[in-house]
Amino acid sequence: MPQPVVEAHGVRLRPFRVDDTADVVDGCADPLSQRFVSTMPAPYTEADARWWIDAGAPAVWTGGGAAYAVADPATDRLLGAVGLNNPVPAHARAEIGYWVRPASRGRGVATAATRALSEHAFATGTARLELFTEAENGQSQRVALAAGFGYEGLRRSAGASRSGGRHDLLAWVRLADDPPGPAVRQLPDLPGGVLTDQVVALRRLAPDDAELMYRLHSRPEVVANQAPPVPPERAAIERRCRLAESGWLTGDIARLLITEVASGEPVGSCGLSFTDAASGEAAVGYALLPAWRGRGYATRAVRLLAGWAFGPPGVARLIAGTVPDNTASHRVLERVGFQPEALQRGRLPGLAGARQDDLTFALLPPDLR
């Protein structure tokens, strides 16, 4: 079957050629590609690239998929690749995937190629495209969103690793009749990547924050106000920090580090997650390191987070659950404008099968101080 050339969104999709060999090796042998595309041979050699160009890519076309080189329209040099795999003609469904050479990253190449191939696939009869990413591959998730693919859910053990194990994948989907443009996000990025009142600043949690977060959330007084009150494992905190961007992009939770602006020192952490997205209700939580308590920093952080939540994310109501005897936290919430609403007896899990009460505070936009 002839392989049509597609030119759209500033990229050219064309068949692979022998003179692409060196660039294919450059893209596929790169550590990032090797980490997140487990189907690639490791190590990736010139022989692997030649096999792909001569046999692998043609076989994808023969099987009903597509295997395109993504090229610069001005020079026709290879920038990356994009393709359709695992087609299900009876359901008009296929999977889309991509990789980009290191020197071509950060220029929107993957987004442009994904949009171009998606539009071509929809124009030729495909109804549903699925895109799968690993949970730690935040950059690929941003490509999916920018190309109009909305988060659909977790596919348990959907990915196979080179070691023979299995791992979960995140599913992103675009339908032929979805509106054009990027997918709508439940938790948009912070403006400029930070919220600040010039005294404290909030930014997204990052992998390098793991040691600090473990130290904070292992403190006895912090553990006592969690449900259940069990100290976290270091590996769990490390994974939480690695997945902070993904949690934000999927709309699961916004995890933030609180820092003091003057010194740049970390103060604590806070977070926001939707409890009922349909009704616009979300919950906030926070914790501070001992040296920074009593300075009003928790109040400032919660006020900043609430102000942002009532803006771009469209939150209509914020709640905060607290242990009834955590009076310091109650004072923080009340200074921001939260009001106590309900004591829910035995709502939270405790230790050894016991239950804890939950004192819930709520904040509406007009209440924000």
UniProtKB/TrEMBL annotation:
Transmembrane segments: none annotated. PROSITE patterns: GNAT (PS51186). This is GNAT family N-acetyltransferase. It is an enzyme of class 2 (transferase). Residues 11-176, 200-366 form the N-acetyltransferase domain. Its EC number is 2.3.-.-. CDD domains: NAT_SF. It comes from Micromonospora vulcania. Keywords: Acyltransferase, Transferase. Gene3D superfamilies: 3.40.630.30. GO terms for molecular function: acyltransferase activity.
